[in-house]
Amino acid sequence: MFFVGSAPSGVEGHVNISPKGGDAFRVLGPLEAVYQDLTGSGAETAAHARENGRIVVMFCAFEEPPKIVRLHGRAVAITEEDARYAEFAALFPENPGTRVYVHIQVERVSDSCGYAVPLYQFQSPRETLARWAAAKTPEGLRAYREEKNRQSIDGLPAL
Length: 159
Hints:
By secondary structure, this protein is of the alpha+beta class. The chain has a single domain (2-148), classed as Pnp Oxidase, Chain A. It is 20% helix and 36% strand. The protein is built from four helices and seven strands. Strands 2-1-5-6-7-4-3 form a seven-stranded antiparallel beta sheet. Strand 5 (54-60) and strand 6 form a beta hairpin. The radius of gyration is 16 Å and the shape is globular.
């Protein structure tokens, strides 16, 4: 599990933090990473990547030792129309709900203690989103994204 934070430019927009799970993150090099972004009810990260690219990815340990790692950088949302989409798709398990790959050029890596992060025990992955996406046709997913993911909650273009 990891968390993605982004925000629009200026002081009026909403800061967004999204939890991500599954086998959805890859380190591509010393300062380069990508994650598989699945269809959801909002598309804030894609909108913020389009507007200013600022992003932070946070990993935290829920077992010992207590550790938090943050990757600060610039993000680009890679859509199906992008030449690199197939390259990134080959890195991840196939998922019909994939809407973009978020490519990150890391500018800063930081770590800190996770002493206040509670200990949690993993039970199992949630299959709800995968089942929902698998039940939709490709046309149904496109229609959903057109309705729900076209813009951010602040009205910025997303997908």
